């Protein structure tokens, strides 16, 4: 019949020549068929994705990757919640604090949820007023030179540029900062003020946590008063119910195939076996250790020069950047936890969030073994916070151990004193606690839920990509110290690095995951601009890269400006690192002046700050008369502050300025990036 119809149509075409041919009709039918298929296939996929049942699959902690399509306001409304706690976190502490607040909300009949600021947009915050007795709390860290954390950047910029009407939004802010840094809690303070400017109502005054002192105490004290203000504002009372409710439930994964089990990857399963560019915090590059040599000439301390091989990785860095190293805990400590808790560390498990609406399904990549979790994902060497003490109480069989934990978890003066002395002063970690309170035997899966994430360590890059495009150099002091309980605490990253010694034979070279973190610590755009560099100890690291880059420019025939370096250490014959290199740069004219301070080579201690004061004329000549740049790298607590005071004094005296003029001058230097600091506390 098709053939006869075809013949008939063909005959008709020949005799009548209609406007629509057989080809036109065929194309039309094809288009309609494709459109129909596309529409209903898409609808079917959408429907199936909404009804997709839960199965145990590899997953990372990234809330960004796990975020549901629904906004946080929809989650609040659909689940009858009224409290949302946002976090801006770079190291995980702000996220931890946010979780503790959300959990405690149940005691005040405020069901809460935790969300990253990246889940927040204008419409969401404006709609908060539609939820009865709603409250938004912001736990926000200030990072770097007064910058928002990566996950809070978009929210911060929206506040700066937006003009939304936030009337009806009730809020409170807790900031996480460090007083040794100039821009102490700057982001949290701005958010607190800006929300009020946009019409929101501050339910409780801002809290400012100082990580240089006792940020846990700052947080607990603020949190207690927060709930008092919340009760007063909403006319509610505490229920008295304890909030020791598990956030994650244990899932047995003994039947999961080995290839679906995480073994230390940060995000993507098997990412170290199948490396993919670009490399970042969620996808680090597994770099070979090309060089690992000792820099100290004698003494009982160690300083390592380490070179990471990045050849073929497509990674690019700039002089002054940082490199992040993902460490792992020592097998000795991990095994000790298994021994103390009589646990099978090789059992495969997963922790699944009991809150189905949460964007964070797992606290770390799951499924994995307990050994993997304790080795790669959990911080077992830092001082546990008070909420962990509280959670451990129920696992203590000895009444004395129970009372001790209860006391340290309390906010009474005696409790704070006990926590400070027994945990902070004596520098106990979770292993020490389990050793010293032998009746405390927590379930290992619960302990894994409670412990914070193991964070990567950042190091100033001590090389220039102009000279070393295929490798990244760092300068790191080995961290080992004895505590008051006569235990030796070891730095997680540096002790791992100390073991990674490259071999000269055909054996596989040691590797470690790394990625590059961009910095604002930069050489002047013009190579002729004079600079002063102040970097005692390992503070020399970025300046080694600066000098290499200027030396490279000089060898190319370009004019370079004055380079003055202030370096200090204990003894010339012990810890004068890179001595031969520096002397060579002085000899070839790249380094104009090298000022050295060896603090213990004479009866009276001598530091770089003493030399800086003595050379006030040189300092003013470069930063004042020649508009040069000044850089500081090292200890923020004392050295950087002392340098700042000296600069203010020199500018006032040599520049003949008043106090207000000096402060404005120095501030302008900072704004113009003529005065830069890369410091740590």
From TrEMBL:
GO terms for biological process: response to hormone. FMN binds at residues 89-94, 141-144, 176-185, 211. InterPro entries: CysJ-like_FAD-binding, FAD-bd_FR_type, Flavdoxin-like, Flavodoxin/NO_synth, Flavoprot_Pyr_Nucl_cyt_Rdtase, Flavoprotein-like_sf, FNR_nucleotide-bd, NADPH_Cyt_P450_Rdtase_alpha. CDD domains: CYPOR (cd06204). The keyword Lipid metabolism does not apply. NADP(+) binds at residues 301, 538, 599-600, 605-609, 642. Its EC number is 1.6.2.4. It is found in: Endoplasmic reticulum membrane. Residues 83-227 form the Flavodoxin-like domain. It is a single-pass membrane protein. FAD binds at residues 457-460, 475-477, 481, 491-494, 680. GO terms for cellular component: cytosol; endoplasmic reticulum membrane. Binds 1 FMN per monomer. Keywords: Endoplasmic reticulum, FAD, Flavoprotein, FMN, Membrane, NADP, Oxidoreductase, Transmembrane, Transmembrane helix. This enzyme is required for electron transfer from NADP to cytochrome P450 in microsomes. It can also provide electron transfer to heme oxygenase and cytochrome B5. HAMAP family: NCPR. This is NADPH--cytochrome P450 reductase. The lineage of its organism: Eukaryota, Metazoa, Ecdysozoa, Arthropoda, Hexapoda.
